[in-house]
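Renewal narrative, Specific Aim 1. Our central claim is that a sequence can be written position by position from structural information alone. The example that follows is taken directly from our test logs and has not been curated for this report. It begins with the structure tokens describing the chain, in the order in which they were read.
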């Protein structure tokens, strides 16, 4: 990372007048760091006031963060990633797939990453992510030792190989379970946004080059 804290493959999103996205879907999964999500929703609103925001929380994420607080900050109801929460006749997986042009999964737990990488679609959100055309940015939050597991590494590599998916590197963070500093924390959402802005800009330049 450079002195701004933005990975060298991304950009500082605060310096971009038009990041290229109009509708962002923020997804929180059940890592403890999801408790900071209200801060990041507020940051998105202050940094990109014209950008529409929606939030999806997994059932495990709702143990660590207040849906009411997030709803107040984004001025929309928070969606729970559960088929049983959908109204009769509703198709939340279709809505969540079609509405955004950017999805930010922050944080993404080990369990969530495995299901996403394997192509599972057993919840509205996972079904949407397997079929959306939106750019998807993922910030893994991994327990101590997980990165040495070849299965976990395979899941991360599979996601990185997918077109339209940006997987952020983990960052050093103090583990709540061990009290030790481990390299498994979720990259700050601002930096994940920078990676996605950079990926979008590169894809747009490539498309313009092909059109010439």
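The sequence written for that structure reads:
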């Amino acid at each position: 990372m450079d002195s701004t804290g933005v990975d060298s493959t991304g950009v500082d999103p605060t310096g971009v007048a038009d990041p290229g996205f109009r509708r962002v879907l923020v997804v929180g999964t059940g890592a403890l760091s999801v408790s900071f999500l209200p801060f990041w929703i507020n940051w998105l609103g202050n940094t990109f006031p014209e950008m529409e925001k929606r939030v999806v929380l997994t059932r495990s994420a709702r143990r660590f963060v207040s849906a009411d607080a997030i709803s107040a900050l984004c001025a929309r109801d928070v969606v729970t990633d559960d088929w049983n929460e959908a109204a009769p006749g509703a198709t939340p997986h279709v809505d969540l797939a079609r509405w955004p042009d950017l999805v930010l999964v922050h944080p993404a737990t080990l369990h969530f990453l495995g299901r996403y990488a394997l192509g599972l679609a057993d919840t509205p959100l996972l079904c949407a992510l397997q079929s959306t055309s939106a750019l998807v940015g993922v910030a893994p939050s991994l327990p101590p030792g997980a990165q040495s597991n070849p299965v976990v590494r395979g899941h991360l590599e599979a996601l990185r190989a997918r077109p339209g998916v940006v997987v952020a590197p983990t960052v050093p963070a103090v583990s709540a379970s061990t009290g030790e500093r481990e390299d498994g924390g979720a990259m700050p959402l601002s930096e994940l946004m920078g990676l996605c802005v950079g990926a979008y800009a590169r894809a747009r330049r490539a498309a313009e080059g092909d059109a010439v």
